[in-house]
Amino acid sequence: PSLVVCDCDVLDTLPEREYRCGCAEVIKYGLLNNAPFFNDLMETPAKEQYEHVISTCVEMKKQVVLSDEFDRGARQKLNLGHTIGHAVEQCSGFTLLHGECVAIGMAVITRAAVKKGFCAKETLDEVEKILKLYDLPDQTTYSTDELLNVALSDKKVANGNISLIVPEAVGKCSIRPVPAEALRE
């Protein structure tokens, strides 16, 4: 785009639930690759720093997209929380909003990362803390089988592997191809 216009005043017109859903996507950017931004969100509510939040997220997305225009590498990281999130969204019959599902997806994948030894429990503690701070869900009632049946139809599945975006620490995530059936563990 040649121009991006961001009007912070529009955010104050959103219903609270929709606003919180947007915060899930904002939190994703901090967890993904910007620990100082994540900490800013922990210390100061997003509502009190709209310009900083928007400019940071827009710049981060711009840099990722410019580095991977065709979504074959680093840009895939923008899907943090989305593989599980989309499955939760579909299982709920879309009664849960996208941002709520992304929040759940980030928490679920971080729990799995701790279980597999990819990240420390402290990372999960921070993720759960910020989701609670922004009144976002971090649990799902859907079974692993229900979620996997949906997740296996995701665009990120190739050759029997799902590309998962896995937190290693706040501000650091990696792309890990995981055999789909191994996710049942």
UniProtKB/TrEMBL annotation:
One GO molecular-function entry? 3-dehydroquinate synthase activity
What GO biological process, any one, is recorded here? aromatic amino acid family biosynthetic process
UniProt keywords (A-Z) are: Lyase, NAD
* Name of this protein: 3-dehydroquinate synthase
Q: Which InterPro entries match?
A: Dehydroquinate_synthase, DHQS_C
All residue ranges annotated as the 3-dehydroquinate synthase C-terminal domain in the record? 22-157
Please state what class of enzyme this protein is.
lyase
Organism per entry = human gut metagenome
Q: What is its EC number?
A: 4.2.3.4
Locate the transmembrane regions by residue number.
none
